[in-house]
Amino acid sequence: MSWFLMGVAVLFFLLAGLWAIANADPEKLARIAKWVFVTLLVLLVLTLVVRGGFHLVWLLMFGLLPWIGRLRNIFKGMKGPSAGQFAEVKSDYLHMRLDQVQGEMDGYVLKGAFEGRYLNQMDLADCMALRREIDGDARSVQLLESYLDKTHGPDWRDGFDSSDRHAGQAAGAMSRQEAFKILGLSEGAGEEEIRKAHRELMKQMHPDRGGSGYLAAKINEAKDVLLGR
């Protein structure tokens, strides 16, 4: 009976561990895995030193050298896409992010009744309510409508009162800092990096390919700002 209970306990903790890993934040999981690996490696080295196995320590170090690059790539992959693989646009109400690898768009509500919510966690009715709430902010309206066009197609407009729907006048001139964020680049990126990021984003966001006309215009504007046009 004791072996049976022990087996049930081990199975329970194993399943709980797998569930925790599956639902953990990838970046935190990668950080934990890296520290566990380093800790185990240090303990192994200390054990070998205490037992007088200095030659084994050197063999271990030489044996690990070819794996250092691979392990670094594994830990990097566990974190998911890096900051440079996201294009970001921000308004008073919304912080939008486009995954340049997957082509997926999401946004975070910065203030108002839906503050702290992600758009992909909101149903269409909530998005419509948010659309009405931000009506006075033209930039936020354009961002939200671009998101809805991409995720729900143009049909969402049929259920929305046309008298409530207008983009308004464009916001002020784009800054270089904002342009770098839109293209998903770090400040100081060179001309080649700017052109490459612009090309990749336009492949996904061009209106002819089902993308957002507004975001495509912002991407073009960002390139022009950074290249001094």
From TrEMBL:
Compartments reported by the entry: Membrane
Membrane-spanning ranges: 40-68
Residue ranges of every copy of the J domain listed in the record: 178-229
Membrane topology classification: Single-pass membrane protein
Principal location listed in the UniProt entry: membrane
Pfam families reported for this sequence: DnaJ (PF00226)
Protein name: DnaJ-like protein
Signal peptide per UniProt: none
Example of a GO cellular component annotation carried by this entry: membrane
Family the UniProt entry places it in: Belongs to the TIM14 family.
Domain of life assignment: Bacteria
InterPro entries xrefs: DnaJ_domain, J_dom_sf
Native species: Aestuariispira insulae
Keyword Transmembrane annotated: yes
Highest classification ranks of the organism: Bacteria, Pseudomonadati, Pseudomonadota, Alphaproteobacteria, Rhodospirillales
Keyword annotations from UniProtKB, A to Z: Membrane, Transmembrane, Transmembrane helix
